Amino acid sequence: MLGRYKGFLLDIDGVLVRGGKALPGAKEALEELRKRGPVLLLTNNSTKSRAGTAKRLMEAGIPAKAEEVLPSSFVAAKFLRGEFGPVRYWFIGESGIPEEMEALGHILVGPEEAEWLVVGMDRNLSYEKLSQALRALLRGARLLATNEDPTFPTPEGLVPGAGAVVGALRGMGFPPEIVVGKPSPIAFRVALNLLGFHPEEVLMIGDRLDTDVAGAKALGMDTALVLSGVTSREDLLGAKNKPTFVAEDLAGLVREEFLAG
Q: Could you tell me the end-to-end alpha-carbon distance of the chain, in angstroms, rounded to an integer?
C-alpha cells in the first residue's frame, strides 16, 4: 500500500526518536522509506536549526542530513522571508530560531525595535522574557508562533511545549497572528514545495492527531499515525480526524502491519 506514494513526510519526536534515543527499528524503517522516495523530516520542534536537528538525530543513531530536516524554526524564517523579505525580530525560544532567522537574512534587534516577535518552545522561559515580549507587542510587533503544541514527549513523560509559551502571551491579550507549524498549512506547503509533489502523492507520518493528521488531511494528504509517541489506541476512539493508516511504530508501518483505526 505504501508503494503508491512518491514521497514521505515524517515527524521526528515520537516517530523516530524519544528523549534523545532512537525508537526500536526506526533507523532501518527510515532507510527503507528513503529507498521508496524522498523523505523530509517535518517537526514542530523549534529549539534547534536544520543542522542542529540533524546533529541531534545523528547522536540518537538516526542518520540525517540538514537539507532533509524541516524544524518549525526554519519554516518560520522561510515564511517570513517569502512574505515580507528580511525583517527585524526579537524572539522567545532556543537556538534554532536565531540560527535559521539569521541564515535567511532576518535581523535580531531589541524588543522595542522588533517588527516581529517569533515564539517557540523555551526551556529557560522567565518572567523577564515575558516582560520583554510584552514590551515588543505593546510597541506594535506582530506575533508569529512556530507552533502551539501543548506538550513535548520525554523519557520522563510529557513536558510543556511551545503552546505553553504562546499561552502566556495569549493570556496577556496577544494571540498569535500567524502559526507556521503543524497543523498550519504553511508547514505542509513548505515541505511539499521542497519535495516537488502534489499532496495526494505524499504520505504524512506522525504521532499526533491534532497536528500531523489534521493538518495533512486538510491539504488532501493521506496520513499514517504511529502509536510510539503521544497518541494511544484509546485516543483514536471517537476521534474526528481519522488517519489513513495506524501502526504501532514506524517499523510496523513500513512492514504494513496496520492496526484497526
A: 16
